[in-house]
Amino acid sequence: MAHTEKISNFHEDASLTSGMRFFRLTHYRWWFRVSLYTLFVLAGQCAATLLGRLYYDKGGNSKWMATFVQSAGFPILLPLFCFFPPLELPTTSAPTNNYSAKPPTISTLIGLYLGLGLLLAGDNMMYSYGLLYLPVSTYSLLCATQLAFNALFSFFLNSQKFSPFILNSLVLLTMSALLLAVHGDSENTTEVSKAKYWVGFLCTLGASATYFLCLSLVQLSFQKVIKRETFSAVLEMQTHPSFVATCVCVVGLFTSREWKDLGKEMREYKEGRVSYVMTLFWTAVTWQISSIGLMGLVFEVSSLFSNVISTVSLPLIPILAALFFHDKVDGMKVMAMVLAIWGSVSYIYQHYLDDSITTKNTRNEASRATSEVC
């Protein structure tokens, strides 16, 4: 009898150990994916922003072309479908999974991708105006307000709760934006009129709000429409709306007649024709790298977390802009940067607390499930 009990206890301990090892392995894989997506966002966003500014500084002037390259790089993602085919079955083993096995209809997907693509095209155009009329440092700091917009959209669309840390972050980011607005009166705008400065300011705010409305809608779409927990779903959510946005930009490029000036723009580009083409090419590539990182973070965590990671590049872009474009970084901008970083840290700390609680609960559930099976 004692021998049988020892064998039973041995199998129970072995099953529990095996379950904990599987959980740890899965958790480490999740962190690897999140870290990889984070690297994509930081590197892609910094490079794309600086290259976009370089295009304008060296003689580029087509706002539709600057908008076009923000979405036109999606074909580089198509080979990934060979490694992540879209015919994977939905996951149903996760205890918190709310996805249904019923796939969406073709008409629903067309409407979804068409709507997101139109929003993306309008958002990219507003970003182009902001980058044209604002210094890179002011532009990047102002983009930090996206956290405030995304928190509001996540609250209404994704049931995101407001903790004290999130509220603190919203207040700090709002103060940072207000400082930049006041600072606009003393900004060095010898090359840009006050009217154009405020157009860029308002367009950047509008772009921040629109883009992270898109991210909240993407997260909602994963939950309610796509209903597949696969990387191919992330690729589809990136490539299809990008295709729609690219088509809109092509139409805008021709209807605005800006295409007639592209040949002259290329010839008069200060760094030469090859540099002109490579600037546009790498801008398109880096925007796609950043976008796939954002979509991956929305899929793996939430739209709010992806927004937080995108603002981590906040202290990097103004520093790089000061080095490469000689942007003026005075005391007011430094104060705005400190407030924005403080607000971002509040968000990150809140997600750290949420992740700790989730990890602890998952371990407890795994332990109880293993004990019940044994």
* Average pLDDT figure: 76
* Total of helices: 14
Which percent band covers the strand fraction?
under 5%
Radius of gyration, taken over Cα atoms and rounded to an integer in Å: 23 Å
Give the terminus-to-terminus CA distance. 18 Å
Q: Could you list the spans in which at least 5 consecutive residues all have pLDDT below 50?
A: 2-23, 88-100
Globally, the shape reads globular
Assign a percent range to the helix content. Answer: over 70%
Structural class: mainly alpha
Following the backbone from N to C, one meets helices and strands in this order, namely: HHHHHHHHHHHHHH
Q: Describe the largest sheet.
A: none
Secondary structure: number of strands = 0
How would you summarize what this structure contains?
The protein is 77% helix and 0% strand.
Describe this structure in words.
- With 374 residues, the protein is mainly alpha-helical.
- 77% of the residues lie in helices and 0% in strands.
- The chain has 14 helices and no strands.
- It starts with a helix and ends with a helix.
Topology summary:
Elements: H1 2-57, H2 63-68, H3 80-83, H4 106-133, H5 136-142, H6 146-157, H7 164-183, H8 194-226, H9 231-255, H10 262-267, H11 273-300, H12 303-312, H13 316-324, H14 331-373
Helix pairs in contact: 1-11, 1-12, 1-14, 4-8, 4-9, 5-13, 6-8, 6-12, 7-14, 8-11, 9-11, 11-12, 12-14
